[in-house]
Amino acid sequence: MSERTQAQVKLDLDDIQRGVLSPRPTPYAATYILFRIDDRDHGRELMRRAGAVVTSAADTVSPLGETWVSVALTYHGLKALGVPRESLDTFAWEFRQGMAARANVLGDVGESSPATWEPPLGTPDVHVVLVALAPDSARLEAAVDRARPAYDALPGVTAIWRQNCHALPTETEPFGYRDGISHPAVEGSGIAGSNKLEVPLKAGEFVLGYPDELGGIQTLQPDVLGRNGTYVVFRKLHQRVALFRRYLRDNATGPEDEELLSAKIMGRWRSGAPLALCPLHDDPDLGADRYRNNTFLFEQDDPAGFTTPGGSHVRRGNPRDAAVAGVARLHRMIRRGTAYGPLLPEGVLEDDGADRGLMFAFVGAHLGRQFEFVQSEWMNNGVFFGAGDARDPVAGSADGSGDFTIPRRPVRRRLLSLPRFVVTRGGEYCFMPGLTALRWLGDLTD
User: Fold this and answer.
1) Is 257 within a domain?
2) N or C end: fewer C-beta atoms under 10 angstroms in the chain?
3) Is residue 175 in a domain?
4) How many domains does the chain have?
5) pLDDT in tens, 299-354
6) Is residue 23 part of a domain?
7) Cβ atoms within 10 A of the Cβ of 198, count?
8) In this predicted model, what pLDDT tens digit does every residue of 169-199 receive, in sequence order?
9) 3-class secondary structure for 237-278?
């Protein structure tokens, strides 16, 4: 990757919601609360009150510590508030359609189709998404209590769904891998990225109102509505942990081979140590080292994928320096996953019927060339690295007929009949406004 001069960008951190840029603490608890607006005036009052409790990206040192609240709105929510048509029409067209309408593009078909989603996800009833996050459950409930006056005593605003989540001290997700490792550096944010080899990305890739990697500036009408806002994709993803474990066991020659297969599928060992840096065995110390566990490239050191398969989950999600993937910098997102539901006990191979998985949030200023491109072209297609229609082995929309290839000398290894390990339970495309925009929404009049 060639070096470039980093322009001096000054972000309005005090106007950007903290949930946009700040990495999450470890461990932490979180909750997602969805609201429906039945009365326009009460919805506007909710926006005014939210402006007083939402935490800004500049508020990193406060009595609340690593506790914050964020607020986002769906297209239906903006309509419910009475945002003028000339403003609504300036939002990204994918956002205006909504996630459910984009199901075929995203691979949300069959068991993951919107017809099977958990109500009210994907319906016009979802207007506002409130996310609260804190280091533990007690402080989380305190944060929710702090936010409660923003919607209490507003009969025209109804809480219609809630999902509690958690991040363990081990930082592992339900399949057992360390999660939340990769975080891009954003110019002007003051927050270091997790890969020292990656040049900071232009702020406009993640926040509206600033130049992006192509030199363009995403705006809305009026400018006050869009500036310092961003798009956020929320998805509830159910993980079939027992099925995943059985598939590994049935395709491995023994326990050591099972762990190797697991690492080849993910691109990392369960500890978080990347195959790129330790291809033959796990290294828990490396996996836990935030200064080393994400500092590597693919194309420069492993173009054929003999160390990290091209179809592995982490290489698909972020091909890094791979030219064949196009300009990867145009498709970078901020990804955050938070586990929900009880963990399946270690060694259990039969499904216990519990709902468990991840609540995922993807942050970016370009829904089409970021989230939707990655989902359709990298996760559910293999053309970009010469693998035809092969899908991501972990999160792809598998139907039991696909396979996964592990490059190996003298003969490659293939895993056949990949089942669907992750099922979409629902999701929403949202807009997370800046704090000034929240107040603007609250001050709307008919």
Assistant:
1) yes
2) C
3) yes
4) 1
5) 888 999 999 999 999 999 999 987 655 578 899 999 999 999 999 999 999 999 99
6) no
7) 21
8) 888 999 999 998 999 999 999 888 999 999 9
9) EEECHHHHHHHHHHHCCCHHHHHHHHHHHHCECCCCCECCCC
